[in-house]
Each structure stands twice: as C-alpha cells, then as structure tokens.
Inverse folding.
C-alpha cells in the first residue's frame, strides 16, 4: 500500500501492512510497541553489531548481524513462542493446568524471566491495557484472557525472578492484526533499528577490533601417547 502521509509513523505502518486505517487505540498501541522494543543497552544484538563493525565492515553488515542475533528465541524471537503457547493453551480455563504441567516437568514458561529485570519487566506493564483494548476491538478478547490466566498461574514463581517480560504481550498484538509469525522479528527490528544504527556509528567513531579472551576450563595437560602405541 502507498504511504499515507497524514498518519503517524505507527498508524501508517498498520495502514501499509493491512490496507485499513487503524483506530486511534490500535495506532497508539503500535507506537508503544515500537518504543518499548527500542534498543536499551548492550543487549545481544547490539553487542553483536558492534563486534561486526569492529572488523571495519560497513553499516549494512552490522545490521545484518544484529538481525540474525535478534531472531534467536532467547532474544527477539520469543514473541513467536509466546503466541504458539497461547494457541496451545486454547482457552483461559486451560492456562493454570498448562503452567502446572510445565513447572512439574521443569520446563520454562515462555514470556517470563529476563537477564536484567529481576522483577516485572517495566516495559510489559505499558502494553497490558492496550492489548486488552485491542482484543475487545478486534472481537477476540480470549487471547488477552489466556495471557492473564498464565500470569495468574505464574504468580507463585515471581519470587524466583520469573516475571512477565515485554515479549509476553507483543505476539498477541500481531496476532490480533492478522500478522504472520514470520514477521514478528522484523517488526521487533523496526523499533530496535535506530539504536542499532547509533551503536554502530559510535563503534565506528572510536573503533577497535573486539576480540574477547576466553578461559579454557577443559582437562589439564595430559601425557601424549604416540600413535604407534595406542
């Protein structure tokens, strides 16, 4: 779809993707989603981009590296797994049993826990109400209800640092708009792109090859046995 210059960046993105002018609430939630997914420190994809730029390659190479790193389920690819989990649960009534079975088998519940945020991811709380409104607007409130069922079932594990993170709500936003799962990571990258570019430019300004040392923790020196004696 051709761009509509009368719309905001986020609203225009939805217009060009769907061919429908989004509601004010839907556009606002998309804007919040982009803002909350912005680059915020030395996360895996930003660091990977810096490593690439450190080899004196160009900006495009750094962004390709960042995108590849973002795609991993332990980083930006988690939204897809959350949506798959919601589909597996099916109805809000099944959420508690699903979580109980996962914890009994010592399996992770997708969308909970963060390497930095030990309490609730502060970004998640800014999406919760918007996701509820969007579900009601799109005539599919059950997706939000399933998410909240999982949140309620996970409350006993909050003391272990297993709190909801930003990826928990993102997938349902895209699902409600009918966006295919293979576009989730590229959408995440839209919000992350400005920060990646600044990270790369900063690395270029005072560049140095990033080559971390690794500590060997394997077996100690062992006696060599000649091949003829083995």
């Amino acid at each position: 779809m051709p761009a509509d210059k009368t719309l905001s960046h986020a609203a225009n993105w939805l217009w060009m993707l769907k061919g429908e002018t989004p509601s004010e609430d839907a556009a606002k939630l998309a804007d919040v989603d982009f803002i909350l997914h912005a680059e915020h420190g030395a996360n895996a994809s930003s660091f990977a981009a810096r490593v690439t730029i450190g080899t004196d390659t160009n900006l495009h190479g750094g962004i390709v590296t960042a995108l590849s790193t973002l795609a991993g389920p332990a980083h930006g690819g988690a939204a897809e797994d959350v949506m798959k989990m919601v589909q597996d649960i099916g109805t809000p009534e099944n959420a508690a049993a699903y979580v109980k079975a996962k914890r009994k088998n010592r399996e992770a519940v997708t969308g909970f826990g963060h390497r930095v945020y030990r309490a609730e991811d502060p970004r998640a709380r800014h999406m919760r109400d918007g996701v509820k409104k969007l579900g009601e607007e799109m005539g599919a409130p059950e997706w939000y209800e399933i998410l909240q069922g999982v949140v309620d079932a996970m409350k006993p594990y909050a003391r272990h640092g297993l709190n909801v993170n930003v990826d928990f709500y993102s997938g349902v936003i895209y699902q409600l708009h009918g966006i295919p799962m293979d576009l989730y990571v590229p959408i995440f990258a839209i919000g992350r792109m400005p920060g990646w570019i600044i990270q790369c430019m900063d690395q270029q300004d005072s560049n140095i090859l990033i080559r971390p040392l690794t500590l060997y923790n394997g077996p100690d020196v062992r006696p060599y046995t000649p091949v003829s004696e083995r």
Q: What stands out?
A: The chain has one domain: 23-205. The mean pLDDT is 88. Residues 23-205 form a domain with the Cytochrome p450-Terp; domain 2 fold (CATH 1.10.230.10). The CA atoms of residues 174 and 184 lie 7 Å apart.
